[in-house]
Description:
The protein is mainly alpha-helical.
Amino acid sequence: MPRSTNKHQFIEDEEARNEAMREGKESLMKKMSELTKFGDADACFVMYDKEGGPPTVWPSTAEAHRLIELYDESKRQSANAMQDHSAFLVKQIAEAKKELEMQKEKNIRDLMLKCLYDVNAVSEITCEETLSAMWAMLAREQKVSHALIKEKVAGGSTASSSKPEGF
């Protein structure tokens, strides 16, 4: 499609200029209406006068406010979803550290189970870090066990003081 050969120039006569502006505004509002009806799109139109009068708003002021808020919210969400390279790397490193800690704990649990069932496995453990991690894990498990026992004892003594059946 060839370019338009219309020549755009300033309209000297103020009345003719205002009429051209009014016709252009009506044409633009008609196009916006067609776009929203047939294009299945949300749109609004705000046009300010050069004299500082009230703006022309299409389809309504409330609808224009709603669409502008919706647009601003989508921009905020996309800005929050975007991250630069350093933020991405920091997030990846944090996830990798978390995964590493989980894997270390799993490995130590597996090693402890191996030590329970294989007497010779204890002699294989030489790393001081592994031994200290095993002791720390045993201490945590012991605290949890003691807390559960205290809870059971406290719950059992208040529930009933009679002996269980069969004794």
